[in-house]
Amino acid sequence: MISDILRWGASWSPNQRIVSRLASRAVALAQTQRRPATLMGAACAGAVAVAALGAGYLHYSGLATNERDAAIHAETANAALQDELGKLRDQLGAVKGRLSAVSTDAQAQARQQQQRADAKSDANGKGAAQLSHALDQAQRELHLTEAQRATLMARLSKAETETQQMQAERDRLAAERDALKARIAKLEKQSMRRPEPERPVAAAAAPPPAAPAPHAAHAEAAPAPAATRGGRGPVGEVEKVLASAGVDVARLFSQFGVSRGEGGPFVPVGKGAAPPPSSLTPEKLAALRAMMKTLPVSAPLMTDYEIGSGFGVRHDPFNGRGSFHTGLDLDAPYESPIYATAPGVVTYAGYRDDYGKIVEIDHGHGITTRYAHMHRYTVSVGERVKAHQQIGYLGSTGRATGPHVHYEVLVNGEPQDPTKFMQLGHIVPAGQQR
Question: Considering the domain boundaries, does residue 423 fall inside one?
């Protein structure tokens, strides 16, 4: 530690190197003669420390003196600069005075020249002002006329576009009217047709008076016409109704097994023979019921409703002229639920001209149903629906005078009377009791 103090003192006072060397020798002597020289070493260390502190004080005093001299020199230079700056400011003020005088003279000369120019142009000033005003007015009128011309051209272009649209809409309506007239004429012809009277089977092949009575086996093998094609019973009634609606009955019956392949020569039975039993077997009844589940035999409303307008010719509710109504109008409270009358696939759900919001369902076998004037529909295209599944709510959208559902049944694209199919729902239950 004493060695470090001596080195520090030597660094601060280079002139005291001799003292440091003596002190180092004293320390070495103290290390060899520890006990006798302890006090001497301490005294020497104290003397060395005092010497080092004195040297440091002298060093810092010299530095302070130098800094004071530098500060005095800086103050002297600053005073000289301030004097020079004052002289420059005086010179700048003199220059500004001269510039102000020159500017005043120039302004006076400019005013004199302007006065002389104004005096010279007084004669022509009024004419020039009037001419300028006239030119401005003509320019404004020209801009206004150009704007009016552009507006008229835009209106003319819009009117031509609307005229073309109206012409296209009129052509489309004319085409729809012609198609509707052709359909109405076809439907009127179909409605005016009368079914040919059924020929009694016995009269078609009456036996000769002298012919002997057939064998009993022939009587048992003879087909019973009561519940077959053209005869009585539920099967015959269903066939009759479907045939009047344009349905391919033979194909439909064969698909569900209601009718089977039968034939052969007709051999009548004797007058005293007992009538054959009914051919409406449980199997045929089950097949008939399965077929009925695929047909639109129910109404699209389950709540109480009234038939506002039937199928066929009627007076149009808007213009009072004669028209052909292609469906049934069923009146019921607003937003009453509307149900599918048979299972099928939704082929259309949207807005269509006079129908308003409409849903169309394909039931197969060429049969399609429509439900028009809905408030809103709850099914989408491609969705498969079940019988009596809700498809929307009753409304009055489209060409309608009030809330109702316009219900159509189409067979192969031709509208048929929906009441014919609704009657089928009463025929089959009656046949089940037999």
Answer: no
DSSP 14: G
pLDDT of residue 108: 87
CA atoms within 13 A on the CB side of 265: 2
| 3-state SS class at 207 | coil
48: Cβ contacts below 8 Å, ≥ 6 apart: 2, 5, 6, 9, 19, 20, 23
Among 113-127, 151-165, 230-244, 373-387, the range with the most confident prediction by mean pLDDT is: 373-387
**Where residue 381 sits, what CATH number does that domain have?**
2.70.70.10
- Is 0.90 surpassed by the pTM of this model? no
Q: What is the mean pLDDT of residues 295-317?
A: 91
pLDDT higher than threshold 60 for residue 252: yes
* Structure-block tokens of residue 9: 């003192």
- Total of domains in the chain: 3
Look over the chain and give the mean of its residue pLDDT values, rounded to a whole number.
77
**What is the domain range of residue 402?**
306-418
* Distances from the Cα of 52 to the Cα of 7, 20, 23, 39, 299, angstroms: 10, 9, 12, 20, 125
Q: Of 204 and 174, which is predicted with more confidence?
A: 174
64 and 141 share a domain? no
| Residue 254 counted as domain residue | no
137, part of any domain: yes
Q: Which long-range contacts (CB under 8 A, 24 or more apart) does 201-205 make?
A: 201/225, 201/266, 202/268, 204/266, 205/266, 205/268
167 phi and psi angles, rounded to 5 deg: -65, -45
Q: How many CB atoms lie within 10 A of CB 254?
A: 13
